[in-house]
Design goal:
By secondary structure, the chain is of the alpha/beta class. It has helices spanning 18-38, 43-49, 52-57, 60-76, 111-125, 151-159, 169-180, 188-192, 195-199, 240-249, 280-289, 300-315, 324-346; strands spanning 5-7, 79-86, 91-97, 131-137, 141-148, 224-230, 253-259, 265-269, 272-276, 294-297, 316-322.
């Protein structure tokens, strides 16, 4: 795999031209030394004294030293490359579907129980420095747990989920954004025509001043992300893709997880029945619009693997970083190794 490397001071690379000159100088010195040795001993005595192994050894320390010089010169040009580093992700919002369809048992023992177990396992995999918040959504959305480092509070919030009617996927995204940006004036009730206010789930923004908003590049906000888990189609609330656009305009990635079978299942509750299907097209659209990914979880084991993948993906990131320090360190190691071998084998530095 090719890793592109950029140089902040590429003019220093011209100094690498000196390396072939040093190699020629080394060869010339070897030839001169050989001629001087032949003045005092016959050629047969010299060959006998220097075996094949000794001949190879004598070139290793200088070769290592020249390589260290090359790395030093490259480091001086200040190279940068895209490398994988620990992420500076500070907050992750779990937006979880608690609609009645989550009682379906096509994912054993049920979609809800499997989702709760996978989410709690996900919390244990995250670094303790990452805050996590939880939004539960059905026909409406509410903050089940504000972002916190306390994993016990988060697990308790997940255990308290109560199944409700309706599926307002867009509301779950908007409420997550309102939690991430409490001073941004994101008002769910204004998008919903007041229904969230009547149910008491909206974040009150009336007394807060709305700051001017300027959209940013999708996926550019690296301090937070949203993980959206649902098993069905939107039946009410804010349009899912409109909510995704709100997240994209703020640079927040929304990773979507679809749980359940694609064909769906017919479930009944309190005298009514309905067939629930997984709207993969919309979930893929949400993820694509926000520069994130969609994951399908058809079984409890699949769901656990999805959360494990998300844990590793959200705790590391690829970032263009200057690597001159690493090259300088490698050069120092090679120089020390060159001097050590020369002292060990020949009782001299080089």
């Amino acid at each position: 795999m090719n890793i592109p490397v950029n140089f902040l001071w590429p003019e220093f690379l011209w100094l690498l031209v000196a390396l072939p000159l040093l190699v020629l100088l080394y060869i010339w010195l070897l030839g001169r030394k050989k001629k001087m040795a032949l003045r005092y001993a016959s050629l047969s005595i010299v060959r006998e004294a220097m075996g094949a192994g000794q001949t190879v050894r004598r070139h290793i320390p200088p070769a290592l030293f020249l390589l260290s010089l090359a790395l030093m010169l490259i480091a001086a040009s200040r190279p940068s490359a895209v490398v994988t580093l620990p992420s500076n992700q500070q907050t992750i919002m779990l937006a979880m579907d608690v609609s009645g369809s989550m009682r379906a048992t096509d994912v054993q023992p049920s979609r809800m129980v499997a989702a709760q177990a996978a989410a709690k396992a996900f919390l244990t995999e995250l670094p303790r420095s990452v805050k996590v918040g939880i939004v539960a959504f059905a026909g409406s959305a509410q903050v089940a747990q504000i972002p916190t480092l306390n994993r016990e509070d988060l697990a308790s919030a997940i255990d308290r989920f109560q199944l409700q009617r309706g599926t307002a996927i867009g509301n779950g995204i908007v409420m997550s954004l309102a939690t991430l940006f409490p001073d941004a004036g994101i008002d769910l009730q204004s998008l919903q025509g007041g229904r969230e206010r009547q149910r008491g789930y909206a974040i009150d923004q009336e007394k807060k001043e709305t700051k001017p908003f300027t959209p940013v590049a999708p996926g550019s906000f690296n301090s937070a992300a949203i993980i959206l888990l649902t098993d069905g189609q939107r039946t009410t609330g804010v349009d899912s893709l409109e909510a995704a656009k709100m997240a994209a305009d703020r640079g927040v990635r929304v990773y979507t997880v679809g749980i359940g079978t694609v064909d769906g299942e017919t479930i009944g509750f309190e005298g009514w029945s309905m067939r629930v299907r997984l709207d993969e097209e919309t979930l893929k659209g949400i993820a694509s619009k926000t520069q994130a990914d969609y994951f399908y979880a058809g079984t409890a084991a699949d769901l656990k693997k999805v959360y494990e993948t998300l844990s590793s993906r959200l705790t590391v990131e690829k970032k263009e970083t200057e690597i001159s320090g690493l090259l300088a360190l490698a050069a120092a190691v090679l120089a020390l190794l060159s001097a050590s071998l020369s002292m060990l084998w020949f009782n001299r530095i080089l």
